[in-house]
Amino acid sequence: MAKHHYHRGRRHRKKKKQNLVSRRVGISLAVVEGIASIIFMAGLLRLNMLPFSYTAVIGVILLLCFGVLFAGQFFSKKKAVAGKVLSAVLALLLLFGAYYLFRAGGALNEITGGEYKLDNIVVAVMADNKAEDIQDAKDYTFGVQYQMKGEQISQTVEAINDELGSEIETVEYQSLAEQAQALHDGTVDAIIYNEGYTGILAEAFEGYEENTKVIYTHSIKNELENKAADVKVEDETFSVYISGIDVYGAIETNSRSDVNIIAQVNPATHQILLVTTPRDYYVEIPGITQGQKDKLTHAGIYGVDASMATLENLYDMEIDFYARVNFTSLIDIVDALGGVEVESEYAFTTSEDSGLVMDVVQGMNSFNGKQALAFSRERQNVPGGDNQRGKDQQAVITAMIKKMVSPAILTGANGIINSVSGNVETNMSETQIQDLIKQQLADGASWSIKSLAAEGTADSQYCYSYAGQPLYVTQPDAGSVETIKEALKAVENGEMLEGSEATQ
Fold first, then answer.
1. Cα end-to-end span (Å), the chain
2. DSSP state, 257?
3. Taking the model in full, what pTM does it have?
4. Which residue ranges does the record assign to the Cell envelope-related transcriptional attenuator domain (predicted)?
5. Are 303 and 254 a contacting pair, CB within 8 Å?
């Protein structure tokens, strides 16, 4: 009998000890889950995109989960395995979520608050030249021109002299065309020019990019004035210049803008007006062309502020913000949104130049990222060429806006922000973007979107940025420009435009 009591007592003590260990493990897991909840909430507050009511509800739910799981382990006299598993799973999920929240917050910080523009001044030689770097070109003759961005060319010559420890020999030309021709003729060994002009040279000289190579780059930063730091985007009408580029390297590098869209946004009336202006529109670039005219796309060479000033002058308006977008990032953005529904005016098959051969139907199309990019790039197989391409790009942006003002933004926000990091730059502040998203999530209102495209006629004219020969341009249609002016004013004044498309 005594032996029986002894064994029973021993089993009781062992079981009690096991329960104590189990409870301690459970409490520890619950505490870890609680700490993970705190970290997750910190990430959520850092991102600052949810209305306070949403954040408060999430906080209360996490607090209740912690309380239930902790109490369940603290007062349990059994192993409570289910509670332990739940604590561990929740902790992992919350830590995983916190990681992406902090990552998204960092990415948002990277793309906002654009403060400067970047000019890359390069030294180019013929592709078969033996020189591989600037040291190899010490005894070369360099072609220069000081008519465009002359101060930056001078700075680059000085930088080269400092690096070589001696002064280089230069020959001055009056235009970029003369400079490039001298290189091809062998009159000079190398030329110094702004990298932004490479696209123009490629149009004028067949095979220019293939027949030349860059052996030196001098980067020059210039600050951009932010005129819209105090704009309250949640309740004031504002405008955004969307500049679509396709460049390699830093997104802030000055380059031609192939997509030029103004988004006029009235948050009070929940109305958006999208205005597309053809890249070849023949216009004056204020402060640059000195009364001469040039293609709108060339304004981007002188900086995003020059493009904004050009459109402001054309439409008699003020543009608050800009967003420079490498349109190849559109693939990731659309995929993060779960695809988009895009309406096409025409049925056509995209060409190889668009990056993807596919059939487009007249009417509504379901596109993933690659398909949306191909649709927005196609100009060969659509009526109207570049003009229709601009309208198709509007259609893609309209479809993206519809998704972004829908609940899809909740599940796709992290992916969107991370996909645009390094591929988008805007002068809109982090706070302004956060306020705009929070306002949309709070009221959940439907938006009306109206699209207009500036029209014109094909022509051939000399351009400021390249005086060597006439280039293809689009002469603005005065009536079309006036219609856009009136529509922009109407949206600003809170008037509803006819023919707008609802987002919901």
1. 80
2. -
3. 0.79
4. 256-405
5. yes
